[in-house]
Amino acid sequence: MDSQLNPSKRRKISVRHRCVACYKMFNRREHLVEHMKISYHSLHQPRCGVCLKHCKSFESVREHLNVPDHLSKGNCKAIFTKRGCTLCLQIFEEAFALAEHKNKCHLSPPRPLGTSTQRNPSSSLAGSRLKAVALDCEMVGGGADGTIDQCASVCLVDDDENVIFSTHVQPLLPVTDYRHEITGLTKEDLKDGMPLEHVRERVFSFLCGGQNDGAGRLLLVGHDLRHDMSCLKLEYPSHLLR
């Protein structure tokens, strides 16, 4: 029947383009190409153990696996509920394998985040085997619409999961969005925060092994590190970033 219709009246079928990594859909091919250029998808990104979707972080994987039922589009949540580890998010084929894994899979409990937890860089790193540290920053929003990212909390953790530096940070601009549902931060938390310049000096001192020569000595591990480093206004050799 379609062949007998006037071509001008035929329903136009739009072809959508899907990212093979994160499965986002785009109406135009050039938009997909631009997405691939800026998304930096990698085999090292966290992925859903069911559909293998690439996610930006493990928290994104957790959200994907625990999406509300009315928003669920696949069977990832159902499979994860039956055969997934709620801590490391791995999926197992058999129930006994999951049970055996859960007996081994554990993390040490996090230390409460106070206003500031600090060590002396030279004393904590001197003579130690520390070769890498992990960095995480929490951002609050500035500007009229709260879209300007400002560093409000910094934490450094060594490869034994020990917190070696943790502090709240005084944002440079007035905060218009504390993003509390994500950061857990309030105005009261930042009232006695450390100035950004001092935080930057402390973090860089740790990365340089307590030396004052400005030479990076440790691998720096984290998610979207370039963004965190940009908000800290800190530069670090790219070959030491993981």
Topology summary:
Layout: E1 17-18, E2 25-26, H1 29-39, H2 58-65, H3 76-83, H4 95-102, E3 116-118, H5 121-125, E4 132-142, E5 148-158, E6 163-170, E7 175-177, H6 180-183, H7 187-190, E8 194-195, H8 196-207, E9 219-221, H9 225-231
Parallel strand pairs: 4-9, 6-8
Antiparallel strand pairs: 1-2, 3-6, 4-5, 4-7, 5-6
Characterise this structure.
This protein is of the alpha+beta class and 242 residues long. It contains 9 helices and 9 strands. The strands form 2 sheets. Strands 3, 4, 5, 6, 7, 8 and 9 form a 7-stranded mixed sheet that branches. It has a two-stranded antiparallel ribbon with strand order 1-2. A hairpin with a 6-residue loop joins strand 1 and strand 2. The longest helix is centred in the C-terminal third of the chain and has 12 residues. The radius of gyration is 23 Å and the shape is globular. The model has no long low-confidence stretch (mean pLDDT 80). This is Exonuclease RNase T/DNA polymerase III. InterPro entries: REXO1/3/4-like, Ribonucl_H, Znf_C2H2_type.
